[in-house]
Amino acid sequence: MGKTARKPEQPVEEFLPLTPAMFHILLALADRERHGYHIMQEVQERTEGKVRLGPGTLYGSIKRMLGAGWIEETEERPDPDMDDERRRYYRLTDFGYRIASAEADRLDRLVKSARVKKLLSKTQVSR
Amino acid sequence: MIASQTGQPPLATLNWATQVYCLLLRGYPSAFRAEYGTQMAQLFRDCYGAEMKRGGRQRLALFWFRTLIDFIRTVPQEHLDNLGKENSRMKNSARDAVALFGCLGIIAVAFFLLRYGLKHETSAILMFGNVLDALVVTGLLGNLIVFLLVKTTRLDPVRVALWTFLILNGLPAIVLALVGSRIDPQFRTTATLVGYAASFLFWFGLHWVWSQTKGRVQPAS
């Protein structure tokens, strides 16, 4: 394991809402560890090219999330033979996973409210 | 088409673009650059290479535009972040200085009052004289010990202050209570004990309040 920040003990709700960039990064790391370029590609593919994280946004967010203990650097490399050794891999910590889940729940509740107010169906109809 | 016949982006163009981006990176704070500069340059190179493979000057121009927007948006953010850390460091130093000068100020006032009392032969009002004696002596010695221990070890400042002032006030109080009246028939045991108790409460209280204030303002980094 690489550099790991302290484990925060505050309730996860205090950190919500997350910035879109942070949530996208946490989502990208939810299923496996990835390096910067992988995170960027995953976000781009998942959002059909609508969200493109620049290097400054990506690494600025990574810096903050490492400092807050939401993600950690890992020295385990999925495929060392195929990989550039200079790349740094990141993965979610338990706390980061809880934050990502809480944010997903918050967004889910928001979408449910929008559905109740017929906002969602209107959008779908117009499409 | 910018991509070469083999499907690989021309290395010279890729290197040139990466060098330009490395120049841009100098806009970020040095600490951030040292930590993430290489990764950012690598990321830029990967993305630029991918855009070159897809081909089209328009695509590359758009990529440069997006990179510049990202640069303009994140550079001030990182500098502000850096400034925040510097400020908290400065605030901690400023608080240390205020504490030091505050203690020196209190000791100076106590000395002045003591000197005035001696010069004008003012009899102690209630136990004021005894309290002042204890405050000055234990304040001078105790604060020096606490300051040195806190700065040179990793001991908890409040615990250091508690034990230092407890020993410095407790020992003379016990010794004087036991032998004071034998040496000086006019020795006032109660006043002396109250003086040292007040001195302990004052100096330890000051350190405790100080630690509470420090704990609230320190950054949660």
What's the domain count of chain A?
1
Order of helices and strands of chain A: HEHHEEHH
CATH architectural type of chain A: Orthogonal Bundle
Mean pLDDT over the residues of chain B? 81
The number of helical segments of chain A is 5
Count of alpha/pi helices of chain B: 6
- Regarding quaternary structure, what we see is heterodimer
Rg of chain B is: 33 Å
Estimate percent helicity of chain A: 40-55%
Termini gap of chain B? 49 Å
Biggest sheet: strand arrangement of chain A: 1-3-2
Radius of gyration of chain A, whole Å: 16 Å
For the largest beta-sheet of chain B, the strand count, sense and barrel status come to: none
User: Which structural class do the helices and strands of chain B define?
Assistant: mainly alpha
- Low-confidence residue ranges of chain B: 216-221
Could you state the CATH homologous superfamily of chain A? Winged helix-like DNA-binding domain superfamily/Winged helix DNA-binding domain
Shape descriptor of chain A: globular
Classify the beta-strand content of chain B into a percent band. Answer: under 5%
CATH class of chain A: Mainly Alpha
Distance between the termini of chain A: 47 Å
Mean pLDDT of chain A comes to: 86
Brief digest:
The complex is a heterodimer of chains A (127) and B (221). By secondary structure, chain A is mainly alpha-helical.
Task: Walk me through this protein's architecture.
The complex is a heterodimer of chains A (127) and B (221). Chain A is mainly alpha-helical. Chain A has one domain (14-126): Orthogonal Bundle (Arc Repressor Mutant, subunit A), CATH 1.10.10.10. Chain A is 52% helix and 8% strand. Chain A has five helices and three strands, in the order αβααββαα. Chain A has helices at 20-29, 36-46, 55-68, 94-116, 119-126; strands at 34-35, 71-74, 89-92. Chain A has a three-stranded antiparallel beta sheet with strand order 1-3-2. In chain A, α1 packs across α2. The radius of gyration of chain A is 16 Å and the shape is globular. The N and C termini of chain A lie far apart (47 Å). Chain B has six helices and no strands. Chain B has two domains: 11-81, no CATH class; 123-217. Residues 216-221 of chain B have low confidence and may be disordered. Chain B is 83% helix and 0% strand. By secondary structure, chain B is mainly α. Chain B has helices spanning 11-25, 30-54, 57-119, 128-152, 157-183, 189-217. Classes of the chains: A mainly alpha (127), B mainly alpha (221). The A-B interface holds A 36-37, 40, 52, 54-60, 62-63, 67, 84, 86-88 and B 28, 32, 35-36, 38-40, 42-44, 46-47, 66-67, 69-71, 73-75, 77-78, 221.
